[in-house]
Amino acid sequence: MKQLSQTVEFDAALLNKYNQPLPRYTSYPPATELSTDFDRHAFKTAIAVGNHKRTPLSLYCHIPFCETPCYFCGCNTIITQRKEVVEPYLGYLDRQIRRRCQFGGGRSAGASVALGRRHAQLSRSQSGRVSLEPVKSIFSLR
User: How many CB atoms lie within 10 A of CB 38?
Assistant: First the structure.
């Protein structure tokens, strides 16, 4: 068997430049902003204020099922190769999308469904069930 060897050289100045703590963008709001004081009433009030100001929204649906772990990933995931375990989650996700859309108020929104990861654990038919149609009917998607 032929062995390959490769030398990797690192740029120390570049490593030092970026050797600093940075925010992670795996969740928003960040955990430091979460509070038990933010109840249902506060949620509805914040939505009403945003609707009045017409501030744009960013919408994100997380699909937490992966076939294999990514050791660099900070997302909340469930590692499984059994596609049927995704079914109940998709039902809950659809209900939550429909519930949250009732607060839309015609605001513009950017939408993202996290399906692009190389380990995303959805069959083709399951991917088709993750629909942004309810979102499109309420929000003006950018």
Answer: 13
**Concatenated DSSP letters for 37-76?**
T--HHHHHHHHHHHHHHT--EEEEEE--EESS--TT--S-
Q: With a threshold of 0.70, does the pTM exceed it? A: no
- Residue 137 lies inside a defined structural domain of this protein: yes
**pLDDT 10s digits, 67-79:** 888 777 677 788 8
Instruction: Supply the range of the domain harboring residue 54.
Output: 38-141
Residue at 117: amino acid letter: R
**DSSP designation for 119:** T
Which DSSP letter does residue 103 get? T
Q: Which residues contact 80 (CB under 8 A, 6 or more apart)?
A: 65, 66, 67, 121
Question: Residue 109 has which token pair?
Answer: 């929104």
